[in-house]
Amino acid sequence: MDQALRAVADPTRRAILRLVRDGDLPAGAIAAHFPSMSRPAVSQHLRVLSDAGLVEVRPAGNRRLYRWRPEGLRDAAAFLEEMWSHRLARLKAAAEREEERP
Amino acid sequence: MNETDTRAIEQTLRIGARPETVWRYWTDPQRMCDWWGVGAELDPRPGGTCRVEMGAGPVMQGEFLELVPYERIVFSFGWESPDGVPAIAPGSTRVEVTLSPDGEDTILTLRHTGIPVAHADEHAAGWGHFLPRLAQAAAG
What we know:
The structure holds two protein chains of two kinds. By secondary structure, chain A is an alpha+beta fold. In chain A, 64% of the residues lie in helices and 14% in strands. By secondary structure, chain B is of the alpha+beta class. In chain B, a hairpin with a 3-residue loop joins strand 4 and strand 5 (72-79). The termini of chain B are far apart. Chains A and B meet through helix 1, helix 2, helix 5 and helix 6 of A and strand 1, helix 1, strand 7 and helix 3 of B.
């Protein structure tokens, strides 16, 4: 979930998610919405979203179409399971540091 | 999805610190920011605010419900949904944390209940994926 949260923390990526929520779009059409941004920068955002499981990519002819992957985050239980797992590990480390025990 | 369609999460881990120390990580905003969130507003008494800014996305909005010093903390848990994050209505889920001393260590058990689920078949893969990580976190 930290990966998913990091992915949605960025306003550009949230804007991309909104774009692809209603239908599949090729990278070029997505990039056209962000004229002040370079294509590689947009591609990098798409990769982060894809790695986090928030969008999926499918080939269509010579293009790649991106689409919203609702199950990527709609599953609150998996989301929270991972969040607690990460966070409690950090709590453990911090509390052990405070008592200066390895 | 109907309202009874919820799931619970339970995680247990051993911490090499005393319950008194672990307790402070749930009740002191500064310490809470060492492990959860970039900002926290905590008023650790029944009915008091429990608000954690998670930095990358949602702000957890809850309320302390029960506090038994060094033993048990219960709070409600919810957040407004930023894009892509599952919505959890404020007050709709509940987190119970128990701390049990074991020698010089603490056994922490966290139980998060009332979590809305979508469809069971979408979850099967998720559980298989997360359980190994949980074991790793617990061992770590």
